[in-house]
């Protein structure tokens, strides 16, 4: 096994398709073609009917901050397995995942579990928070600018690489580009 790894170490199939880090094929729970760190984001996106590129675009619109509190949660290496929570309209998709069309934004754990979910259970007459009402009326994920449109959206994983990754590019994708 070690000999085979030495021979194939620089072969493309041994590098993550997203971050280009080496893949440890002995690790369990990985998504095929991805390192373990990127696999977390890939699974999370798929569970909610999104791609990693779409998550990147939503985070770009949100300036890499929680859509409600504006905090930078950190990166997955220091904050745990997943620090972004994908908020979606549970009345549209009542199961644990979503179809992708009902996704509203990416939130920190506190805002998702104790902020918006609590607020939505209030009777409409008691919903008096301007910030939460604005978020529900115009969710970042449903804005036109949240479409995948820049090179930074299709390279890396914004959620994994933290708020200040150097690979980000705001250069627009060209029409008909084959990415």
Short overview:
The protein is mostly helical. The chain has one domain (2-161).
How does this structure look, described?
With 179 residues, the chain is mainly α. It has seven helices and two strands; from the N terminus they run ααααββααα. The chain has one domain (2-161). Helices cover 32% and strands 5% of the residues. It has a two-stranded antiparallel sheet with strand order 1-2. It is globular. Residues 1-12 and 75-81 have low confidence and may be disordered.
Low-confidence stretches: 1-12, 75-81
Shape, principal axes of CA atoms: globular
Task: Please provide the count of β strands.
Answer: 2
Query: Count of helical segments?
Result: 7
**Widest beta sheet: strand line-up:** 1-2
Element pattern in H and E: HHHHEEHHH
**Helix- and strand-based class?**
mainly alpha
| Number of domain modules | 1
Indicate the radius of gyration in whole angstroms.
Answer: 18 Å
List the helices and strands and how they pair.
Blueprint: H1 2-8, H2 36-47, H3 52-61, H4 76-79, E1 85-88, E2 103-107, H5 109-120, H6 130-137, H7 158-161
Antiparallel strand pairs: 1-2
Features:
32% helix; two-stranded antiparallel sheet; globular; mainly alpha; 7 helices; 179 residues; disordered N terminus
């Amino acid at each position: 096994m070690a000999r085979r790894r030495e021979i194939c170490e620089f072969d493309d199939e041994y590098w993550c398709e997203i971050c280009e880090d080496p893949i440890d094929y002995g690790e369990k729970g990985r998504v095929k073609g991805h390192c373990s760190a990127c696999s977390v984001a890939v699974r999370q996106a798929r569970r909610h009917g999104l791609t990693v590129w779409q998550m990147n675009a939503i985070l770009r619109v949100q300036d890499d901050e929680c859509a409600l509190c504006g905090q930078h949660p950190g990166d997955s290496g220091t904050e745990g397995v997943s620090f972004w929570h994908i908020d979606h309209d549970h009345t549209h998709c009542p199961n644990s995942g979503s179809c992708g069309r009902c996704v509203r934004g990416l939130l920190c754990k506190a805002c998702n579990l104790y902020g918006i979910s609590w607020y939505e259970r209030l009777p409409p007459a008691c919903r008096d928070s301007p910030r939460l009402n604005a978020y529900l009326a115009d969710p970042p994920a449903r804005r036109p600018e949240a479409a995948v449109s820049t090179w930074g959206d299709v390279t890396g994983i914004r959620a994994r690489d933290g708020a200040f990754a150097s690979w980000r590019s705001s250069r627009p994708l060209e029409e008909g580009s084959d990415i």
